[in-house]
Write a structure and sequence with these properties.
GO molecular function: dioxygenase activity
Protein name: Glyoxalase/Bleomycin resistance protein/Dihydroxybiphenyl dioxygenase
Number of helices: 7
CATH topology of the largest domain: 2,3-Dihydroxybiphenyl 1,2-Dioxygenase, domain 1
Order of helices and strands: EHEEEEHEEEHHEHHH
Keywords: Dioxygenase, Oxidoreductase
Organism: Zopfia rhizophila CBS 207.26
Oligomer: single chain
Shape: globular
Structural class: alpha+beta
CATH class of the largest domain: Alpha Beta
Strand content: 15-25%
Distance between the termini: 52 Å
């Protein structure tokens, strides 16, 4: 089979770029002293396993990809400085609210506590911080389709309050056990609206 790749001359002046197939992995820089701490944290946090480990780098995965998270260090790397430009957070999606809350409880048994629990409208999200202070989001989609989510995000409610409202995971766990449906529980609830200053303070 012949592979066809257009020449530069065949392309328009500013063509639409071919999107990638998927996001493969994230690489985080850490200090030399914290490499093993970060490796152990992410192995526990994701329920994953290490596939490559040296004094200067660790790769791990939690699914069929050969590595999803890489941790690298060099002697010149310094600790993370809050309130600087750069990556805000990494988000991990779960298939159901029950799965999200199961992982929440399992992490608690390991001493990993969330910094914020927010129903944003599009997602129900639980935020954590890793040992370096990087923010991590674990989430479940609140709508069944991308089209429904996009419609909500373009609507008035999300424009007025994109952060959403706080929730207590234990409350959702009890309601799920009582037979209330995930769809109902994932609706933007009656919790206290999350203020921007509060969210930043908890996740910085």
């Amino acid at each position: 089979m012949t592979t066809t790749i257009p020449s530069l001359d065949d392309l328009p002046a500013k063509p639409k770029v071919l999107p990638p197939s998927y996001l493969a992995h994230v690489v985080l820089q850490t200090t030399t002293d914290n490499l093993s701490v970060m490796r152990d944290f992410y192995t526990t946090f994701t329920g994953g396993h290490v596939v490559f480990d040296t004094p200067y780098a660790s790769f791990l995965t939690y699914d069929s990809e050969h590595h999803r998270i890489a941790l690298v260090t060099f002697p010149q790397y310094k600790p993370k400085v809050p309130d600087t430009a750069g990556l805000s957070h990494i988000a991990f999606t779960f298939a159901s609210l029950a799965d999200l809350l199961t992982a929440y409880q399992q992490r608690k048994k390991h001493g990993i506590e969330p910094s914020a629990c927010v129903n944003h409208g599009p997602t129900t999200s639980i935020y954590y911080k890793d040992p370096d202070g990087n923010m991590l989001e674990t989430q479940v989609d609140n709508f069944d389709t991308v089209e429904e989510t996009t419609k909500y995000m373009m609507g008035e409610a999300f424009q007025k309050n994109p952060l959403g409202s706080e929730f207590v995971p234990e409350d959702l766990i009890e309601k799920l056990k009582a037979g209330i449906s995930e769809k109902e529980l994932k609706r933007k609830g009656d919790g206290v609206d999350m203020r921007q200053e509060e969210f930043v303070a908890r996740t910085r």
